[in-house]
Amino acid sequence: GGGDAVNWSDGNNWDNNAVPLFSENVTIGGGFVITVDGAFSCNDLSLANSTLQVSAANALTINGTLTINDAGGGDAILDAAAGTVSVSGAVLLGTTGRNSVQVSTGTVSFALPISLLDDNSQDITFNGTGVINFNGGLTDNGAGILTTIAGCTANFGGPYTNLNNTMTWNISSN
Question: Residue 87 forms beta bridges with which residues?
Fold first, then answer.
């Protein structure tokens, strides 16, 4: 498309010159930084060498699978920032480059269990007092891949398993 190359809401940014529908699969690559600037949904979402950020009071619902995989060695980041992201399907993080889910003061919710590999290229990071809901649980096979900050909230609807036993979880502050 020929849009502003910035906002999800600009239909001209998309191949078919229309904002994706809830039933459509979305792929964002090419080094773009796209801002979710409203309430939107899609089926599957794939990020490669790009950043998708959700601005304040806005929301993205992913009805299917979230794939964050920068095979080219760069960064692929889903940043909930101050917005809301809900993922109903599987979460697949690549093993090359940096493949990251971040939240500042917003909320991210994962319906299914997530497994992080013992690899420095995968992380889930709190950058502020946001909330992450691991409704299906989290298995962390690596050292410090889940990065917390004082005042953040991680809710677990399933088990939290740290197979390396290298991260300290401070229940009183996190």
Answer: 62, 110
